[in-house]
């Protein structure tokens, strides 16, 4: 294609002719085709006597001549085989025609798909639409949606079981083999299946979601037409092959199938023909150029007039804008002038507002002068500024008067406070003088206490009696002194508030009263500390003397003890005397050898034990006594260990017998667990759970008996031994009892678990039976109501028909006979599924919901089921069904799912509405059978009888 094809549109008709001749890069044939608007030779069916026919993909014109250069295809030349013979050309064409195709036609795959339907609002928004063939994956075709969703490709592809059977099937996703998917079909069809898609991929099968192949009716008709044409004129040629040019005289009358023998004459003829057409095109181009030039002149004149009108309008707008700007400028200057005047006046007003008694008169004069000078310039705010200034001046005068009054009152208060302060100061000084006198008395008592304590300073020279007498005197003097100090403190507490320094702003530093108070407090503390210290010292001396006296008494006792065993009176204890001392005082019988070993450590190079070494002797004898005790304890322990070893052997034998019994308990528990019904609910549905549970309970009781007997044997393990060995036996059994108790506790837990499961299974069976009876009751009521509706029976007629004996009540046989003889059509109609309408929900993506269950499940009537159902419907103590009970059972309840009017008449007129029925409101009816259009009943909320 010529790159300058659009030169007419870009540069205009004026330069089209010149640019056409300058575009030498385009080529001669292309120039004529683009500039003069007629095609090259060989590109149209024919000019003059030339007849052009479709060229073969494997051959050129006759005599291996490719054409005359005006319409020959370069592509045909490139793809033409090197063979020149007609046989070679025919062979190549045959090979190309029989070559296998590499597109979807070879596998009979649809080239396009249409995805429609779907319930999931988000997924169907993504995947619904038209898909085109995009390639092959895992031996299957995959397709791509024509439009993207949020810049994501939407692909439909197949994935085999190389990653597991759960991943095999057809998928919708943004990428082949990607993690994100929208829908799934587990089939392995060679092409995308039409139905059975899970939407979304982990949800239920969406029956409304379909994938169908695009209809190719038009395409097939086109192929059939080509096939028909090919049967007449020859085989169909590839679409991408261009047309080949042939000789002008090819196929002329009289020379069928023979080309013209002078190709140069034909070329000259074609050139002449082209020149004529070229001149004609040039003439038409000049006429077109003149027409466009005239139109251009008209357009320019209209454009000039339009611009002139626009200029005039703009000039008018500019003048109006200048006038408006001038007016706004004058207004702005006036506002600025008024603002300055207002500012000057308000500046003085603010000064007046903050005036003091000293400068009020000066500011009042300044305000009058300012108003004379600037008030007229305030313009529209003149009256406002005048009233504001007068108001501010009045307020300032009132405020000054209030300040003067406040100063006068403050001065009077100050004088009264000063007088009161002087009185308080005089009173505080008098009290401090009185406190000082009390302190003088207390200090005198402290001096007297010192004199009483003076004799105690002599220390050891005094006897115990003298020290006690002195200490008693000190205690009495100390008590007297503390009483005097207490009087001072009581006086201080009582008169403390009056003794405080009165507040005075004129005093700088510490006042005289504070100094006197500090001195008094210091004297009180000093008296207290000194009296307490003297009394404490007296008590310490008395205690030391008492301890010394006690020590002297103990030493005297030890001396008497020493002299008691010092028989020879040499002030030393010999070995014989030590042996006697040990036996009498420590109940210790020492051998001579032991005493000889201890003797050097006791006497220290003396002939005997001195009184000063008596404590060492007592320590050594005490140590020797403890050693003898240890020896006796060791002997007792060894004897006990021998006895415990014998007991251990006996206990091991008994424990082994008990362990064998425990193994029997474990076998019994395992047997009970095996007899238990399976935990899976699906497995329990196929067996007689009550019988299985009863057998399990029997085996469980046997296991309980065995476990109880073994536990009794464990408790009896310590029995059978002597009383004196009972503690050792219990101590030896602690580890064994711990192990056995743990095992028995685990067995008990397992048995308890089995008991709980049996109770749960019994509860499930009971609940299942109740649910079965409840469902059977609902189904029976539905069947009876359908029967009555088809037979046009009311409640009384239906009851009479069920009462076959006519005795006024229905027995079990009549009840079973009515339902067992029910027509199959009524049972089938009652068994039809019925679901409540789904409430409207917002269109938000959410997890797939489980399919809604039917309101009523069909029931297969049997004699046993009907017998149990009849017994459940009876009143307590009755064996027959009365008409009142039958009416109660057949009563029908309706639930309002959409708001509507409640009326007392059949027709709704808009004025006879009692009220509006609310959604989820319950309505009851005892006489309505069959399809309900208008319901006559009563509301469960307010018992209003009406028609809904």
Automatic annotation (TrEMBL):
Coiled-coil region list: 648-675
For this UniProt entry, the molecular function terms from Gene Ontology, in alphabetical order, are:
calcium ion binding
Keywords of this entry: Calcium, Coiled coil
Top-rank taxon of the source lineage equals Eukaryota
Residues annotated as domain EF-hand: 553-588, 790-825
| Ranges annotated as biased composition (Basic and acidic residues) | 92-103
Whether Calcium counts among this entry's keywords is: yes
Q: From the UniProt entry, list the residue stretches annotated as the region Disordered.
A: 76-103, 217-240, 284-325
Official protein name in the record: EF-hand domain-containing protein
- According to its UniProt entry, this protein's organism is Symbiodinium necroappetens
């Amino acid at each position: 294609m010529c790159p300058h094809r659009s030169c007419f549109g870009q540069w205009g008709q004026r330069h089209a002719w010149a640019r056409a001749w300058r575009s030498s890069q385009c080529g001669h044939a292309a120039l004529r085709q683009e500039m003069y608007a007629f095609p090259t030779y060989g590109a149209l069916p024919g000019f003059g006597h030339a007849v052009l026919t479709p060229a073969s993909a494997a051959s050129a014109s006759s005599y291996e001549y490719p054409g005359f250069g005006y319409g020959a295809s370069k592509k045909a030349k490139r793809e033409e085989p090197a063979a020149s013979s007609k046989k070679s050309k025919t062979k190549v064409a045959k090979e190309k025609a029989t070559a296998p195709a590499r597109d979807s036609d070879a596998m009979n795959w649809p080239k396009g798909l249409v995805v429609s339907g779907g319930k999931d609002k988000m997924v169907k928004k993504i995947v619904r639409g038209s898909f085109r063939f995009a390639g092959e994956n895992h031996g299957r075709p995959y397709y791509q949606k024509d439009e993207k969703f949020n810049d994501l490709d939407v692909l439909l592809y197949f994935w085999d079981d190389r990653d597991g059977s759960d991943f095999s099937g057809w998928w919708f996703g943004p990428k082949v083999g990607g993690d994100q998917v929208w829908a799934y079909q587990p089939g392995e069809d060679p092409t995308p299946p039409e139905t059975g898609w899970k939407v979304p991929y982990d949800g239920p099968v969406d029956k409304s979601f379909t994938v169908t192949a695009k209809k190719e009716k038009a395409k097939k008709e086109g192929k059939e037409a080509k096939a028909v044409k090919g049967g007449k004129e020859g085989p169909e040629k590839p679409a991408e092959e261009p047309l080949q040019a042939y000789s002008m005289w090819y196929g002329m009358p009289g020379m069928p199938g023979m080309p013209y023998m002078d190709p140069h004459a034909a070329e000259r003829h074609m050139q002449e023909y082209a020149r004529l057409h070229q001149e004609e095109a040039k003439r038409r181009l000049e006429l077109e150029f003149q027409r466009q030039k005239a139109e251009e002149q008209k357009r320019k004149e209209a454009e000039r007039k339009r611009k002139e009108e626009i200029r005039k309008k703009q000039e008018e707008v500019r003048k109006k804008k200048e006038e408006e700007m001038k007016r706004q400028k004058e207004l702005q200057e006036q506002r600025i002038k008024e603002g300055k005047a207002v500012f000057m006046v308000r500046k003085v007003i603010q000064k007046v507002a903050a005036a003091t008694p000293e400068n009020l008169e000066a500011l009042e004069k300044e305000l009058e002068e300012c108003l004379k000078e600037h008030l007229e310039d305030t313009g529209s705010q003149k009256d406002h500024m005048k009233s504001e200034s007068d108001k501010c001046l009045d307020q300032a005068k009132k405020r000054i008067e209030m300040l003067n009054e406040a100063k006068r009152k403050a001065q009077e208060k100050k004088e009264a406070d000063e007088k009161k302060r002087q009185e308080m100061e005089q009173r505080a000084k008098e009290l401090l003088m009185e406190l000082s006198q009390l302190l003088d008395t207390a200090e005198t008592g402290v001096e007297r206490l010192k004199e009483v304590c003076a004799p105690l300073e002599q220390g050891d020279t005094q006897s115990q009696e003298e020290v006690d007498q002195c200490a008693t005197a000190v205690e009495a003097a100390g008590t007297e002194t503390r009483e005097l100090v207490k009087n001072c403190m009581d006086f201080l507490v009582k008169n403390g508030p009056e003794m405080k320094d009165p507040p005075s702003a004129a005093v700088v530093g510490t006042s005289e009263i504070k100094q006197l108070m500090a001195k008094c407090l210091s004297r009180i503390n000093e008296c207290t500390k000194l009296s307490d210290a003297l009394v404490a010292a007296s008590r310490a001396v008395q205690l030391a003397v008492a301890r010394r006296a006690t020590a002297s008494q103990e030493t005297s006792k030890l001396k008497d003890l020493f002299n008691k065993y010092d028989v020879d009176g040499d002030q030393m204890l010999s070995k014989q005397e030590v042996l006697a001392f040990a036996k009498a005082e420590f109940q210790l019988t020492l051998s001579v050898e032991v005493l000889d070993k201890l003797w050097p450590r006791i006497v220290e190079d003396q002939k005997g034990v001195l009184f000063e070494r008596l404590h060492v002797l007592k320590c050594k004898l005490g140590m020797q006594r403890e050693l003898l005790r240890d020896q006796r304890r060791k002997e007792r322990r060894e004897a006990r260990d021998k006895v415990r070893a014998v007991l251990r052997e006996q206990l091991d034998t008994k424990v082994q017998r008990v362990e064998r019994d425990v193994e029997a308990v474990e076998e019994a528990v395992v047997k009970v667990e095996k007899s238990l019904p399976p935990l899976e609910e699906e497995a329990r549905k196929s067996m007689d759970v009550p019988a299985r549970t009863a057998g399990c309970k029997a085996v469980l009781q046997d296991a309980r008996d065995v476990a109880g007997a073994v536990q009794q044997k464990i408790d009896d393990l310590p029995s059978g031994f002597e009383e004196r060995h009972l503690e050792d036996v219990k101590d030896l059994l602690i580890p064994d009892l711990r192990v056995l108790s743990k095992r028995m506790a685990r067995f008990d837990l397992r048995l308890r678990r089995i008991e709980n499961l049996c109770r749960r299974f019994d509860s499930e069976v009971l609940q299942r039976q109740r649910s079965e009876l409840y469902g059977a009751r609902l189904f029976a009521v539905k069947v009876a109501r359908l029967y009555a509706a088809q037979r046009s029976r009311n409640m009384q007629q239906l009851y009479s028909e069920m009462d076959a004996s006519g005795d006024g009540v229905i027995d079990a046989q009549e009840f079973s006979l009515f339902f067992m003889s029910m027509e199959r059509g009524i049972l089938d109609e009652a068994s039809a599924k019925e679901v409540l309408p789904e409430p409207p929900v917002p269109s938000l993506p959410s997890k797939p919901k489980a399919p809604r269950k039917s309101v009523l499940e069909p029931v297969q009537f049997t004699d046993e089921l009907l017998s149990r159902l009849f017994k459940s419907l009876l009143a307590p103590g009755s064996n027959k069904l009365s008409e009142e009970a039958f009416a109660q059972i057949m009563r029908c309840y309706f639930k309002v799912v959409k708001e509507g009017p409640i009326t007392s008449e059949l027709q709704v007129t808009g004025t006879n509405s009692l009220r509006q029925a609310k959604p989820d409101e319950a309505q009851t009816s005892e006489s309505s059978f069959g399809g309900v259009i208008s319901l006559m009943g009563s509301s469960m909320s307010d018992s209003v009888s009406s028609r809904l």
